[in-house]
């Protein structure tokens, strides 16, 4: 049996020692222009809430880490810390690293590109925190006013998932996603790539969580480019990976699918040792 790679213990800035009410994971891959903006926006919306913001530098090849370090020296960002994943293995791997180091009982993840407003994370938190049993809920976004082509792709993923699993999956990749820490134990075989969003919803349904969707605005990027849809070829490759992942998960199960997912990523990026959970 192949042994799991050792976890690379990331270097993190110091965060407040009290247990936060909410931990928010934000994976950052070459988001140097957006990092100061997203920190400022989170500062505006969290108010007096005890929040832990974890910026995961997910193997950036630009100067994102330098910018993060400079920004987090500012006292107004004492609620934030950074974790470094030296090599970009995938979106799912970065989020999983962040979740592993989160302290809050309520956890969230969202994007760093500002297409997902940090205010939406707080809206989702308000909903789940008011439930008597928050561990039985997952709150997620539902994007509105989207362009026709992206919406058609989303609908296609929903249809394929419904056919394979006989369940409704709405807005699979919409952000944010907010859930209780107890749900982490169910995420035993997370994919390393963008399939994490589907896996989280698949497991939420399997665990019989109440999935609540909130409408969120999804504007165009201000800076940078999509990490999966930057060309027609990249879109086709991602669609193929989504469909293949869904089919394997349906017919071969979680453990087998996780192994295959690692193999796909190894073909793309090379050695995974010491870079993955």
Give an account of the 3D structure.
The protein is an alpha/beta fold. It has one domain (about 20-270): Alpha-Beta Complex (Spore Coat Polysaccharide Biosynthesis Protein SpsA, Chain A), CATH 3.90.550. Helix content is about 40%, strand content about 15%. It contains 8 helices and 7 strands. It has helices at about 35-45, 65-70, 90-100, 120-130, 150-165, 195-205, 230-250, 255-270; strands spanning about 20-30, 50-60, 80-85, 105-110, 135-145, 175-180, 210-215. A 7-stranded mixed beta sheet has the order 3-2-1-4-6-5-7, with helices on both faces. Helix 2 links the parallel strand 2 and strand 3. The longest helix is centred in the last third of the chain and has 21 residues, at about 230-250. It is globular.
Describe the SSE topology.
Layout: E1 22-28, H1 34-46, E2 51-58, H2 64-72, E3 80-85, H3 91-100, E4 106-109, H4 118-129, E5 137-144, H5 148-165, E6 177-180, H6 196-206, E7 210-217, H7 232-252, H8 254-269
Parallel strand pairs: 1-2, 1-4, 2-3, 5-7
Antiparallel strand pairs: 4-6, 5-6
- Rg estimate, integer Å: 18 Å
Question: Percentage of helical residues?
Answer: 25-40%
Assembly type of the chains comes to single chain
Distance between the termini: 17 Å
CATH superfamily: Spore Coat Polysaccharide Biosynthesis Protein SpsA, Chain A
The overall strand count is 7
Total of DSSP H or I helical runs spanning 4+ residues: 8
What order do the SSEs take from the amino end to the carboxyl end, as H and E?
A: EHEHEHEHEHEHEHH
Q: Which geometry do the CA atoms define?
A: globular
Give the biggest beta sheet.
7 strands, mixed
Mean pLDDT: 89
Fraction of residues in β-strands: 15-25%
CATH architecture: Alpha-Beta Complex
Highest-level CATH class: Alpha Beta
Strand order in the largest sheet: 3-2-1-4-6-5-7
Low-confidence parts: 1-16
User: How many domains make up the 3D coordinates?
Assistant: 1
Q: What do we call the CATH topology? A: Spore Coat Polysaccharide Biosynthesis Protein SpsA, Chain A
| Alpha-beta classification | alpha/beta
């Amino acid at each position: 049996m192949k042994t799991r790679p050792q976890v690379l213990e990331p270097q993190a800035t110091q965060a407040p020692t009290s247990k936060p009410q909410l931990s928010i994971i934000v994976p950052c891959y070459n988001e140097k222009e957006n990092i100061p903006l997203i920190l400022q926006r989170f500062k505006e919306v969290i108010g007096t809430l005890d929040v832990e913001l974890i910026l995961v530098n997910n193997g950036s090849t630009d100067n994102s880490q330098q910018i993060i370090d400079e920004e987090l020296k500012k006292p107004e960002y004492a609620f934030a810390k950074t974790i470094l994943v030296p090599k970009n293995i995938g979106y799912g791997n970065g989020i999983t690293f962040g979740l592993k180091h989160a302290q809050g009982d309520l956890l969230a993840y969202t994007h760093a590109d500002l297409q997902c407003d940090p205010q939406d994370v707080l809206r989702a938190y308000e909903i789940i925190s008011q439930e008597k049993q928050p561990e039985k809920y997952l709150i997620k976004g539902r994007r509105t006013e989207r362009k026709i082509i992206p919406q058609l792709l989303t609908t296609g993923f929903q249809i394929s998932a419904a056919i394979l699993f006989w369940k409704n999956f709405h807005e699979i990749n919409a952000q944010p996603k907010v859930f209780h820490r107890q749900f982490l134990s169910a995420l035993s075989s997370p994919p390393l790539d963008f399939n994490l969003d589907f896996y989280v919803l698949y497991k939420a349904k399997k665990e019989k969580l109440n999935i609540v969707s909130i409408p969120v605005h999804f504007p165009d990027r201000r800076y940078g480019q999509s990490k999966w849809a930057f060309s027609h070829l990249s879109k086709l490759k991602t669609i193929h990976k989504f469909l293949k992942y869904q089919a394997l998960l349906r017919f071969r199960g979680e453990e087998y699918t996780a192994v295959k997912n690692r193999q796909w990523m190894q073909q793309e990026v090379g050695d995974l040792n010491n870079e993955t959970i």
